[in-house]
Amino acid sequence: xxxxxxxxxxxxxxxxxxxxxxxxxxxxxxxxxxxxxxxxxxxxxxxxxxxxxxxxxxxxxxxxxxxxxxxxxxxxxxxxxxxxxxxxxxxxxxxxxxxxxxxxxxxxxxxxxxxxxxxxxxxxxxxxxxxxxxxxxxxxxxxxxxxxxxxxxxxxxxxxxxxxxxxxxxxxxxxxxxxxxxxxxxxxxxxxxxxxxxxxxxxxxxxxxxxxxxxxxxxxxxxxxxxxxxxxxxxxxxxxxxxxxxxxxxxxxxxxxxxxxxxxxxxxxxxxxxxxxxxxxxxxxxxxxxxxxxxxxxxxxxxxxxxxxxxxxxxxxxxxxxxxxxxxxxxxxxxxxxxxxxxxxxxxxxxxxxxxxxxx
Length: 360
Ligand SMILES: *Cc1c(COP(=O)(O)O)cnc(C)c1O
Description:
The protein is an alpha/beta fold.
């Protein structure tokens, strides 16, 4: 039998139809496409890191429970003992684990659209129907449509990225609560951008039995170590933990993140700097008549160009050595939209300079 026949007979049709998550080659371009923190660690921490990694036993399996790291996370993030923490190889993995634990025949997942693309990719690969409910023009939740869909389809899981990616805005707290109270399913509040937002759901978590909170250290400066965490009532963590691979958090990550988080002030200072620079960048972009810049509670800005200009501006930036994210191809609300991650001061200026020469 030809390989094509094996593939078409054996691979799930949903998977055959999918495109793999695409990460563009960035070479030595200024990289403002992936919501990374642009700063490295201070030399003093780097030296400490090298020292403790030197003494890490890579011949042994890591602590399967990541106990020390979880203890550090709980302490540094102010997570109270009424909740448990479960770690994932990035919060991407936790999204998948939640889906695996709850999957079954005729189950569906609902999320507003546009949002983080991995919800849909993972939902389809784990056998769910995926329902997306368009946000309104200003990227706020269309509550009428959300409630209708929840009542009609009774989704098993609802994902709310808060602040939302790629739009950068937060939703109204009372709307999130209304969704939680209407749903018979689980609501996952994904706070990947919590370091840059002025609001977290953590304080409200205790009031609800159908909510899991997701966070990650990726956007706060540690994207390379791949560590996300779930905060939830113990009953949820107990169940999701059963589908987790025993050693999903490697020993280097456990050791490094425990050390770095115990110097959390360094990451916090970088985060504050990024928030300040975000506002400066926002004002500068707003000075271009052709651009509409959306409010952001994250470490990136979404902006809209004049009709048909997004591809041209994106390519012009690329030719001049700056990589951002072109979302225009997704169409709908994102037509003509580009997303730029807040970089260092000099990266942001370089970016603005190129935008300026594009428009002059
Ligand atoms: C970046 C991002 C994630 C994934 O984070 P990792 O921990 O790096 O896997 C999850 N959710 C949202 C909304 C994101 O933007």
